[in-house]
Every structure is written in C-alpha cells, then in structure tokens.
C-alpha cells in the first residue's frame, strides 16, 4: 500500500486552509471597520451592483453559490436593509433583487477595502507569484482571465 502524502502536499487540504485564512482576513478587516458582512454577502452585493434586478437563482449562479441556500443570504441582506425584492413583471413567482441606497453606498465604501485586503491574503507571495497564483486558480476552475465570479 502506498503511503498517503502529507496533508501539506494535498491541494484540497491547502485550498481549505487558504479559504479559512481568506475568510478570517476578510471578516476581521470588515469587523475592524464596524461592518458585519460575510464574503458571500459581499459577493452578492457587488454582483447586484453590476447586474441590478437579478433573481435569486441567477445571483446564485453568478457567485457560484448553492441555489438552495442563497435564500438565507438574500434574507440577511434584506434584514440589513442592503437589498430589496421587487415583483418581476415577467414572472410573478420570481423576485428581482435590487440594492438599496444603503447597499450601494456600502459596496462603494467597501470595494477598495476588499481589493486591498487581497494582498493580506497572499502576503507571503511576490507580485509575480500572485499573478501566477491567480492564473493557476482560474485554470483549475476552468475560468478565463476575464471571467466574472
């Protein structure tokens, strides 16, 4: 029987660890600024800023989030008064999601913060390594360099 490689050489383990680190950096930075927003919630807000009027299923697809649990994200963002649901004139069963003025202001305020904290997530990599790292992650996920997440 072949021995297992150490966890430190397994991509899945390292990806999980990097996700934990990334999430902690994000949450801590935003908490320090007095905001209670998760990475998934921020992704939803940015996506709705770029694509106002999406339904929940489309939003879930664009942020690569589970359709079954996107409702909880939407509910929490509504409770925070960052988004609102509007009736869809073309499909009364689906709702269009829109940012509120507070949601738009938050995206504009936090956008630069979230961009800057990306460097903290990969602080031990050189600029060249960061570019390569992002390209390799995009390749592993079958994304092209211009793909939106």
Commentary on this structure:
The protein has 149 residues and is mainly alpha-helical. It has a single domain, classed as Arc Repressor Mutant, subunit A (Orthogonal Bundle), CATH 1.10.10.10. Helix content is 58%, strand content 7%. The protein has helices at residues 11-32, 39-50, 56-62, 70-79, 101-121, 127-140, and strands at residues 83-87, 95-99. Strands 1-2 form a two-stranded antiparallel ribbon. Helix 1 crosses helix 5 (101-121) and helix 2 crosses helix 4 (70-79). The mean pLDDT is 91.
Proportion of residues in β-strands: 5-15%
For CATH, the homologous superfamily is named as Winged helix-like DNA-binding domain superfamily/Winged helix DNA-binding domain
Order of helices and strands: HHHHEEHH
Secondary structure tally: strands: 2
The largest sheet, given as strand count, sense and whether it forms a barrel, is: 2 strands, antiparallel
Number of helices: 6
Level-2 CATH architecture: Orthogonal Bundle
Rg computed from alpha carbons, rounded to a whole number of angstroms? 18 Å
What integer is the average pLDDT? 91
**Ranges with pLDDT <50 over ≥5 residues?**
none
Instruction: Supply the number of structural domains.
Output: 1
- Widest β-sheet, arrangement of strands: 1-2
CATH top level assignment: Mainly Alpha
CATH fold assignment: Arc Repressor Mutant, subunit A
Give the overall form.
globular
**Termini separation (Å)?**
40 Å
Helix content: 55-70%
Which structural category do the helix and sheet elements fall into?
mainly alpha
């Amino acid at each position: 029987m072949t021995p297992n490689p150490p966890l430190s050489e397994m991509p899945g383990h390292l990806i999980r660890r990097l996700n934990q680190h990334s999430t902690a950096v994000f949450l801590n930075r935003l908490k320090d600024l007095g905001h209670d927003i998760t990475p998934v919630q921020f992704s939803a807000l940015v996506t709705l800023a770029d694509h106002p009027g999406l339904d929940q299923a489309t939003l879930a697809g664009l942020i690569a989030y589970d359709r079954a649990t996107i409702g909880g994200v939407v509910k929490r963002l509504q409770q925070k008064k960052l988004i609102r649901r509007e009736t869809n004139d073309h499909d009364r069963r689906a709702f269009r999601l829109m940012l509120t003025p507070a949601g738009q202001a938050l995206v504009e305020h936090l956008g630069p913060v979230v961009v800057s904290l990306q460097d903290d997530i990969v602080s031990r990599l050189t600029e060249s390594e960061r570019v390569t790292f992002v390209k390799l992650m995009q390749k592993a996920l079958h994304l092209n360099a211009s793909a939106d997440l």
